[in-house]
Amino acid sequence: MSSSMGSARRGKPKMRPPRKLGPETSIKDTWTKLSAAIREIQNHNASKLSFEEHYRYAHTMVLFKHGDQLYNGTKELVAEHLDQLAQEIIVPTFPRSSGTHGAGRLGGGAEAVERAMEGDRFLKAVKQVWEDHTGSMRKLQAVLKYMDKVYTAAAEVPMIYEAGMSLFLNRIIRSTKYPIHTHLIATLLSQVQLERDGETITRSTVRECVDILLRLGVDERAQREGGRNVYLADFEPEFLRRSAEFYAAEAVEMLETGDAPNYLRNVERRLAEESGRSSHYLSSLTDPPLQQLLVEHLLTPHLNSILYMPGTGLVTMVDHDRIPDLRRMYTLFLRVPMEVGKDALRIALRSDIEERGKAINEAAEQMPLAGPSGDQPGMDVDGEADPKGKGKAKATTPSSAANALSSALRWVQDVLNLKDKFDTMLEQAFSGDKTVQTSINEAFQSFINLNPRAPEYLSLYIDEHLKKGTKAKSDDEIELALEKTIILFRFLTDKDKFERYYKIHLARRLLYGRSASDDAERGMVAKLKVEMGFQFTQKLEGMFTDMRISAESGNAFRNYLGRHGSIPVELSVNVLTASYWPQTIVASSPCTFGPLLAEATGAYQKFYDSRHSGRRLTWQGALGSADVRVRFKARSHDLNVSTHALIVLLLFEEVEDEQTLSYLDIKSATNLPDGDLQRTLQSLACGKFRVLTKIPKGRDVNPTDKFAFNDGFTSPLARIKIMQVASKVESNKEREDTQEQVDEERRHMVEACIVRVMKNRKQMSHNDLISEVAHQLSTRFMPSVNLIKKRIEGLIDREYLERTGDIGVYRYLA
C-alpha cells in the first residue's frame, strides 16, 4: 500500500469529506474495489494501494448503512485466504503419524532427529501462516477503522481484528477441513517428549506456536474479553495427562533400579527441567499444576519405597553420612502436600535411630558383670574404696572390672556419637527443622530409657571426665563433654536415679581427692541446677560446703596440736553432714582403731568438741586411706592403703617373725564386719601386692585362715597402692538394692506431692489429682498410675485425705 496511506500532504486537510454517491457510483462498485484491495493486502501487495482511497470506501459503505455487507464480506475474504494458506503452507508439512504416539519415550537416534525436524517444519509453517494472517489483519484494521468505531459497536459484533482471530482459530487451529488441530497438539507434545528424552529441539519455534494458542480465545467472547484461551482449553489438559502417564511409568522404571539417591536426583532434575520448560516455551500458568503432577507421580506414592530401599535408602545414607542425598530427600519430601512427605521422613528417621539405639543397648547388655557370681564386689583398677560392699568377698580380676566400666563408658560415648551424627544431619541436611528435631529427640529418649542402667552409665561417664588419673584432658574438652552429657541427661526419665548415682560418684571424688578440677565440679552442679532447680542440687552443694569447712578445720586442728601437743600420726579428717551425703557412704561401720590411731582420733574429738557443742562424730574407717612406710627384708616401701588395711597391718607390728594371726584373732582385735574384713585381708594377702601371707593359699578368705607378715615381699616400686575396692559399675545385687531404695524414695515423693497438691486445692477429682501429681513429678521420674493410687489409699488410711460424697472426689484434711 502506498505511503499516502495514513498520511496527508502538508497544508491540506488530513481527510476529505466523503463524496456523495451519484448515479454513476454504486455500493456494488465500492465493495468490488474494496474487496479487490483486501485481496491485494492479503497477497502482500499493499504498497500499490492508497490508504486514503480505500479508507473512504469503507467509510462510505458504513455511512450509507452497508456496514453488514462490509463486515461479513471482509470475513468471507479472510476465511477464504486462510483456507488457501492452510492448503498451500501447512498441510504439506504435516508430520508423519504425529498423533499416534502416547506418553512413552519416542526412541532415539536418527528417528528422533528426523521427528524433531519434521515437527519443527510443521510448527514453523503454522507460525508463518499466523504471522501472515496477523500482518494482514493489522492493515485491514487500519482500513476498516471507521467500521470498527461505528458499525461493530452498534451491531454488537467483534471488531474486525478480533473476528480475524476467531477465523484463524476456526479455519486453521480448529479447522474442520484439515486435521491441523490434531497435528498441532500432537507435534507440540512430541517436541516436549523428545526434549524429555534428551533430544534437542528448537525451543523458539515451540514457544511461538504456544504463544499463538495463548492469544486465541476459545470463542468470540473470550477473544473479546480476554477469557479462556486455546492453550488452556486444548493443549494444557492433554499435556498434563501425557505428562502424568510418562512420569508414572518413569517412576516405576527408576524404582526398579533400586538406587534411592539416583532416583531423588532424577526427581530433582525433572522438577527443574519442567520448571524451565514452563518458563521458556510453555506458559507460566502451567508450572504449578505441572510441578504438582510430578510430586503426585514421582514422590507421593513412593515415599516409603524411597526411604526403605534396601542398600540405598535412608539407613544407608545415614550410615555413610551422605548429607547432600539427605538434604535432597528432605527438600523434595517437603513438596508433598499436607506434610505427608515430612511425616514419612520423620517416622523413618525415628525408626532408624531407635534401631541404632537398640543395637547400642544390646552391646551394653553383653558386658561382663562386676563379679563372677553377678552379685559380689570385686577389684577396681581405679583403687577407690568400696563403702558399701557386704557379704563374703570373692576375687574379681581387675580386667573384668575394667571391662565392665569400659562397656558402661562406651555405651555413653556411642550414644553421644550417634547424637552428634544426627545433630550434624539436622543442621546440614534438614535445615534445623523443629519437627524433625522433635522426632530425633523422641527416638533418643525412647531407646535411652529402654536401658535401665542409663542413669548409672551417664553418671560414670561424668565421673570419668571429672576425676584425676584419666587421660589428660583440657578444660575445653571437659566442658564440651559435660555439655553433651547434659543433653543426654534431659532425655532421662529417671532423673532421681541419676541423682543417686551422681551423689555417690561425687562423694568418692571429693573424699578421695580425685577431682581433676574444683571449677569443673561446681560447673557441672551448676548445669544440673539450671536443668532441675535448687532442690535437685541442694545436697550436692552441701557436700562441697562440707569439704571446704573440713579443709578449714584441718588448718585449725594443726594449730590446736601446736598448742596442746602432737599426735603419733599425721591426721586429716573430713567431717560430713549425714543428710547431704549418700547413705551408702556415711552408713555406720563399727571398727576398733587400735591404740595408735585411737590416740589421734581422740585428739581430734577433743578439738572438735571444743569448737562445737551438741554434735556427735561417728568415725567412718571405711572411707579413709593411709600412707604408711613398711620395712621388709629387702627394702622399705611406702604403702597407700585403706584405713581398715592400716588397722590390720598395725596388728602385725607387735607379732614376732613368722608368727601368725588367725582370722578370728584379727576380727576380735579390729571389730570389723566379716564383709569388710574379708575384703581387707583379700587385698593384703591375695592381690597383686601380697604384703601378708595367707595360710592356706587361695583367693578366698575363710574364717579358718591364718595370716603372717610377708617379710620377704619385694617390688620394684617404691610406692605401692593397695586398696580393697569394688567395681564402680554396679552388680546385679547392688542394682536391686539401689532400685529398692529408689522405689522407697519415690513412694515418699509421691505422697509429699499428693499432700502438697491437695493442701493447695483442698478438693480434687481422682483423675485430676493423678494427672497433676504425674505432671509435677515428671521432671524427676514418671510415676505409674498404680503407684499414685496406692499412695492416695495410704494417705486416706492415715487420714490425710478423705473421700467425699461424690464418687471419685477427695478432700484434704488439715
Automatic annotation (TrEMBL):
Disordered, as annotated region: 1-27, 366-399
Example GO biological process: ubiquitin-dependent protein catabolic process
Record field: compositional bias (Basic residues): 9-19
Record keyword Ubl conjugation present: yes
Database matches in InterPro entries: Cullin, Cullin-like_AB, Cullin_CS, Cullin_homology, Cullin_homology_sf, Cullin_N, Cullin_neddylation_domain, Cullin_repeat-like_dom_sf
TM ranges: none
GO CC term (a single one): cullin-RING ubiquitin ligase complex
Pfam name, any one: Cullin_AB
Molecular function (Gene Ontology), one example: ubiquitin protein ligase binding
Superkingdom, natural source: Eukaryota
Residue ranges of domain Cullin family profile in the record: 453-685
Keyword terms: Isopeptide bond, Ubl conjugation
Similarity-based family: Belongs to the cullin family.
Official protein name in the record: Cullin
Organism: Naematelia encephala
